[in-house]
């Protein structure tokens, strides 16, 4: 399952001058079929009638490996509009699968900002589930930089690290814990974190990722550094400005960069206003709403607040930068504020016309 929107003339590379890793990749579900509901149905072995119709028809002796990327506090973001898979629903499905004996062991890797919020405090140990995340519940994940081809970063630090480790390792003798420890050591910027049944770390990677011969590197890679995912767009513009030969092109890029920063500043002011209105002008409470790192427990409140925020303020799909500033809604819900206080604050702050393209 992949959205399939990154290949250029049938080519995807992981690093400069690297091999084409796109050729021969099975594409069971692409584009509009990449939805949270389809994902959950495939995971549970339920026929969905789209794409290749392949599903995971697993049983009590099977081991399942899941990798997913992109999200926000308490949810995984799918490509189509407001399609999100919240932690409560995801873990609920896994609990049902465990009860129905749909797997023996499950390993989940998540590459996303706040990825740890999908698992922290979710009572996972009795589910035969082990998860690692690119970041803990309160921090961003990072992309590799420069690591670019045609102005696009080629990967996230965590994802590149675990995939390269799998490619170079003998999976028959390398354990899940070996990979976690190596990826944690190599991932800079965010803290790779593990959740669930840590005793599963002694299992071999081949039980989840298959068996193959280790690959030897033949291409020398240049140095890369981590950059927060929220800052990738600015870094891309900076590189384009630096390399622009035409004065008019450079000026246009500089103006685009300036507008991007102004849009971000406007968005952050609105978030601060929402916090102030929720807190009834009490500065200490408003500051706490903006800075606290509470776990998402009250999903009914959070999902309702997020829907109202999108209706009245900013669409997350049209303004990706907003994904990195939803903590105020989590904190409001977990601090005991009533939904009417939250929606009223959103209504009071967001009187502006519809805005798109805040990245």
From TrEMBL:
<feature type="active site" description="Nucleophile">
    <location>
        <position position="113"/>
    </location>
</feature>
<dbReference type="InterPro" id="IPR001096">
    <property type="entry name" value="Peptidase_C13"/>
</dbReference>
<feature type="active site">
    <location>
        <position position="70"/>
    </location>
</feature>
<dbReference type="GO" id="GO:0051603">
    <property type="term" value="P:proteolysis involved in protein catabolic process"/>
</dbReference>
<dbReference type="Pfam" id="PF01650">
    <property type="entry name" value="Peptidase_C13"/>
</dbReference>
<feature type="domain" description="Legumain prodomain">
    <location>
        <begin position="258"/>
        <end position="350"/>
    </location>
</feature>
<dbReference type="InterPro" id="IPR048501">
    <property type="entry name" value="Legum_prodom"/>
</dbReference>
<dbReference type="GO" id="GO:0004197">
    <property type="term" value="F:cysteine-type endopeptidase activity"/>
</dbReference>
<comment type="similarity">
    <text>Belongs to the peptidase C13 family.</text>
</comment>
<dbReference type="InterPro" id="IPR046427">
    <property type="entry name" value="Legumain_prodom_sf"/>
</dbReference>
<dbReference type="GO" id="GO:0005773">
    <property type="term" value="C:vacuole"/>
</dbReference>
<protein>
    <recommendedName>
        <fullName>Legumain prodomain domain-containing protein</fullName>
    </recommendedName>
</protein>
<dbReference type="Pfam" id="PF20985">
    <property type="entry name" value="Legum_prodom"/>
</dbReference>
<dbReference type="GO" id="GO:0006624">
    <property type="term" value="P:vacuolar protein processing"/>
</dbReference>
